[in-house]
Amino acid sequence: MIDKFVQYIELPQPTLGNNTADAERLKNAIKQKIECSDNEKKNGKSSIFFPTKLVTDLPSKLRKWNHKLKVVIFKNSIGWQLIDIVEPNRDKPCFGIAADLGTTRIVLRLINLETLQACGEIGFDNPQASIAPDILARIHHARTDRGLNELQKLVISAFNEKINILCNGYNNAHNSCETHHSCYKSGYNKAHEADNTYKIDSKSIYILIVAGNSAMTHLFLGIDPSFLIREPYIPAINAPEPLEAQELGVDINRGGMVYLFPNIGSYFGGDLISGILFSELHKKDAPCIMVDVGTNAEVVVGYKDWLIACAGAAGPALEGGISDMGMTAKPGVIDKVKIDPVTGEIDIHTIEDKPPIGICGSGMIDLAAQLFLSGMIDIRGKFVPERCGKRFSEKDGVGRLIVAESEDGIGSDIVLSQVEMNSLTSSKAAMYSILQVIIEKTAGLQFTDLEKFYVAGTFGSFIVPKSAISIGMLPDINLEKFEVLGNSSLEGAAKLLTNPYLFDEIDKIREGITYIELNVNQEFMNIFSGAKFYPHTDISRFPSVLSYGA
Amino acid sequence: MIDKFVQYIELPQPTLGNNTADAERLKNAIKQKIECSDNEKKNGKSSIFFPTKLVTDLPSKLRKWNHKLKVVIFKNSIGWQLIDIVEPNRDKPCFGIAADLGTTRIVLRLINLETLQACGEIGFDNPQASIAPDILARIHHARTDRGLNELQKLVISAFNEKINILCNGYNNAHNSCETHHSCYKSGYNKAHEADNTYKIDSKSIYILIVAGNSAMTHLFLGIDPSFLIREPYIPAINAPEPLEAQELGVDINRGGMVYLFPNIGSYFGGDLISGILFSELHKKDAPCIMVDVGTNAEVVVGYKDWLIACAGAAGPALEGGISDMGMTAKPGVIDKVKIDPVTGEIDIHTIEDKPPIGICGSGMIDLAAQLFLSGMIDIRGKFVPERCGKRFSEKDGVGRLIVAESEDGIGSDIVLSQVEMNSLTSSKAAMYSILQVIIEKTAGLQFTDLEKFYVAGTFGSFIVPKSAISIGMLPDINLEKFEVLGNSSLEGAAKLLTNPYLFDEIDKIREGITYIELNVNQEFMNIFSGAKFYPHTDISRFPSVLSYGA
Q1: How confident is the model at residue B326, as a pLDDT?
Q2: Which residues on chain A are in Cβ contact (under 8 Å) with B23?
Q3: Could B78 and A52 be called an inter-chain contact, meaning their C-beta atoms sit closer than 8 Å?
Q4: Contacting residues of B for A239, CB less than 8 Å apart
Q5: Does B365 lie in the same domain as B293?
Q6: Alpha-carbon gap, residue B204 to A327, rounded angstroms
Q7: Spatial separation of the C-alpha atoms in residues B538 and B71, rounded to whole Å
């Protein structure tokens, strides 16, 4: 069993009695380091792909280095592969990059493949947004002349530009990183303290692991994404082969490998597989659930014996899905709200304590929970004017509530309208309905059977479970069961860089998962209607809300 | 079980109930066509490598072709690989090329991968000879600045030039082919008659299989060959990975694959592995032997239970080895000799009945056999002047025999000197000694235990076994056991193009073979001394020679 992608090797000297070729002698030495997987043991051999370009000058290198060397290896479902051979005493370490390839945001993390420490991270907007903000429009653009090529080039160029920044010191990189929040949550701060500044050669980067949804993965690879969005929603490929960096034009070591997490369907992408890998859902002893609250609500439930994934077409049917609530988290955005049930006073918290500029999704949930608990909205989610007091008004017949007044005349009031409240109500009802269908109808479980409730995705990072339960968005289970995973897509990709055997686990996850497209049928709509109340029509589902409720 | 590298596939249409991605649906359909090997069955899956560049426009192609297509696939020890997808009704067939990469001569054969028919062949001198005629000098040149690159470029350019000729019609190709002889022997004439002229696009060529000795293989791949010839004689690589044609610069389909037969040592190359594959030595029910009489004497003995290969350093120690005898076969070269034992009249036959210009190796053996049987040489291989008559003379104290007088004053007499006879004596003794060591000392058999005696190599093609036995070069066994294989290196490569599963057999051959370096020790020299007599000191070893002998 080897633990890292970089290994130190000492070869036996060639003799007349052992005339095995140099390449095969090196292969054999690597094999001895590898504890073969079950399949490899059955075969009696583990295959190691040895690119010919690494053999051309191997004989003289081996003899110059006295048959001692470092090797950078890579593993995938087919077998092991040699990426490079390196002087044994070289002081420059070898690196890898983990990438979360989001539709909106991309985050890269630089990891030392020898110490396994993170030593830089950079976040940036997906440059494809300049062509089209959402997936659908990008896919349509990909069908125009040269459109696919243009989209691919945009993202690859952005990767190269940001990799270059990462190579020139994590400090710069981190300053331009706007995801501080998730960095700290993910324990990335340790890495910040461990290393200071860093300058590395991009040729020292040997592996790039990319986790993205199915559409972003197709575009990254320059693969026609047209049929992802047309019934019956067929990806061009589920599990792309790892590619050489030079084939994609990624500026890392020219023999370096680029691996993209596989998808299991148009709406269940590699970002989620990466999240499962990170949460270790597939290894749990009792059923758990992972919910990625992104553009669609994507849900996986299961444990070591089975996994059911559910995603898809429900999103659009449900008025913009769940992530439509609020604005992106950034300084000045209201992320926490507290309302005094007696005075009705609203106490807001903004990111970095800047003057308020809007409300983010988690702030919306907090706000709705507090409005409901203080009686300022009713069980249908409608404003109760007599409880709202002077903060409430009507404009063109639509109720509105001032959440925060402009400070000293700077900026404008932060207002929540009944329309936005209705949208929130639909969204929270959709979320709960999807969960109910999967857990109760599909898996045949009760919510209380769940041992863990993982909330994944950037949006999910900021959700306060207690508030989400209060409005009936998340099921009313023990708060200790909730665990926020942060950017689980990035974390799964980063984890993969620390252990070659995880490639096997990814294959097992992908092959073992049962994928169900969410059908918006009459039964679903009935469930959905019941969930549109605060917290729910069936109040027995939310005993804890009753106990502290209005 | 699939029988060809080109397969016609019909895919199931994608539906909501079967949302497998296009690439994976194609993979599954190919898998259904493949009867998995034992290992693949054990794994429960057979891996198929699907290059990303074939996925980029797969969705639209599949739909345009209504989910019907032809695939070109390739197989190696790691698994299957998709090379290309082709319109189902395309009338242009897909091709492969088999190559015998000799130190002196290169032969390419074009094969239709769908009909499995040969449809063109071209032979040409290895252009590296312009830099250095023999292996040793080429390896030294490879160590000079840019020398390796220069040697590689020469041979790749020659391949490209001749592939281009092959593509423009076999007729042209065949006219420039100087190995007619072996073409006809190998059944190639059938192909000649079947097809007439042909013009194909080099992009229709998908596979190039190359069988060459270890040094030629290293140079073809641009791999440092230095240590092949330095003790302890270590190749840089035994089994090179198949490469994409574009990586090597070979002008066939850019995704086409180039496979080089593996070697099992510096002196036992892919040409011999190819020969074993062709002769099916590894499948025989009783011990057989294959002898490649080339630059060195390379020998494999064995059958389905074991294989022992023997080659190497004996050659140089034995005064130039065996192939040093005579000149290359070409029109005008004496290839058969008959001497009237009574009159001493010499009756020669030349290739294509042209006026004699020299003697080739097989002619030399025939000549020596006839000289011995007619008493014109004695048991030490020395001329017997009184039996040779007026054809014999001395020049500077060295005996010489006129084999053929110049015809009508055109050209010069063809003369055999005592020095050449001595060299032949050494060579034939070396051959027999090697055989004796391997069969009797190493394998513990008697010559009579052999079921088949295969003579491989271009030189071997022309040997008349009866003559070789007469001079004590080959063992005195039933003449029916001898079988001349022709250019077995080319034939093995061509065979591989007709059956993907043969890659597995090559691996089995290579892994199962025991390789023994021939040691020129005192014991060997004793055996060698005994073999320097005509036919042998131990005359009981050649009963049949006695029965018709002098």
Answers
A1: 67
A2: 236-238
A3: no
A4: 24
A5: no
A6: 55
A7: 61
Per-residue pLDDT tens over the stretch A137-187: 999 999 999 999 999 999 999 999 999 999 997 544 444 444 443 433 344
Average pLDDT over residues A401-427: 85
Does residue A298 sit in the same domain as residue A358?
Answer: no
Considering only residues A47 and B532, tell me which one the structure prediction assigns the higher pLDDT.
Answer: B532
pLDDT at residue A360, as a whole number: 84
Q: Which residue of B has its CA nearest to A247?
A: B53
Q: Reply yes or no on whether the pLDDT at B37 is more than 90.
A: no
Domain boundary among A43, A66, A86: A86
Q: Is the peptide bond before A475 cis (omega within 30 degrees of 0)?
A: no
Note the pLDDT tens digit of each residue in A422-455: 988 988 888 898 899 999 999 999 999 999 999 9
Residue A338: the pLDDT is 94
Question: Quick check: B236 and A23 CB within 8 A?
Answer: yes
Tell whether B386 is covered by a domain: yes
Number of H helices, E strands in chain B: 20, 22
Are A104 and A243 part of one and the same domain?
yes
What pTM, to 2 d.p., does this model score? Answer: 0.88
Chain B interface, mutation test: which of A41, A151, A237, most B Cβ atoms within 10 Å? A237
- CA-to-CA separations, B88 to B1, B30, B68, B71, in angstroms, rounded: 21, 15, 6, 9
Chain B residues touching A148 at Cβ < 8 A: 56
Residue A243, pLDDT score: 95
The sign of the torsion formed by the CA atoms of B339, B477, B420, B397 equals: negative
Closest chain B residue by Cα to residue A57: B224
A496 φ, ψ (degrees, to nearest 5): -60, -30
Closest alpha carbon within chain B to A220: B56
CATH of the domain at A428: 3.30.420
Q: Are residues A345 and A198 in the same domain?
A: no
Establish, for the pair of chains A and B, how many residue pairs have beta carbons separated by less than 8 Å.
154
Question: Is residue A550 domain-resident?
Answer: no
Strands A482-486 and A452-456: parallel
Among candidates B203, B206, B176, B170, which has minimal Cα distance to B188? B170
pLDDT at B88 over 60: yes
Whether B472 is in a domain gets the answer yes
pLDDT 10s digits, A276-335: 999 999 999 999 999 987 656 789 999 999 999 987 544 443 444 454 566 777 888 898
- Of B362, B345, B340, B461, nearest to B404 by C-alpha is B345
Give yes or no: residues B130 and B200 share one domain. yes
CB contact under 8 A, B56 and A224: yes
Same-domain status, B459 and B544:
yes
Q: How far is A463 from chain B (nearest CA, A)?
A: 33
Using CA atoms in the order A194, A197, A203, A207, what is the torsion angle rounded to 10 degrees? 30
Please state which of the ranges A448-452, B258-262, B445-449, B484-488 shows the lowest mean pLDDT: B484-488
pLDDT band at A85 (very low <50, low <70, confident <90, very high): very high
In a domain, B43, yes or no: yes
Residue in A closest to B17 by C-alpha:
A232
Residue of B nearest to A82 (CA): B241
Q: B108 vs chain A: nearest CA distance in angstroms?
A: 23
- Contact B234/A19, CB-based, under 8 Å? yes
Subunit contact A240:B53, Cβ cutoff 8 A: no
Same domain, A291 and A432: yes
The total number of structural domains that make up chain A: 4
Contact: A57, B224; criterion CB under 8 Å: yes
- Under DSSP, the state recorded for A24 is H
Nearest CA in chain B to A54: B223
- The last residue of one of the domains, among B20, B54, B86, is B86
Task: Identify all chain B residues contacting A50, using CB atoms and an 8 Å cutoff.
Answer: 237, 241
Contact partners, residue A396, CB within 8 Å, separation at least 6: none
Residues of B in contact with A144 (CB under 8 A): none
Which residues of A are less than 8 Å from B222 in CB distance?
Answer: 56
pLDDT at site A361: 81
Inspect the interface and report whether the beta carbons of A51 and B236 lie closer than 8 Å: no
Same domain as A315, residue A432:
yes
Which pLDDT does position B32 carry in this prediction?
87
Provide the residue range defining the domain that includes B192: 95-260
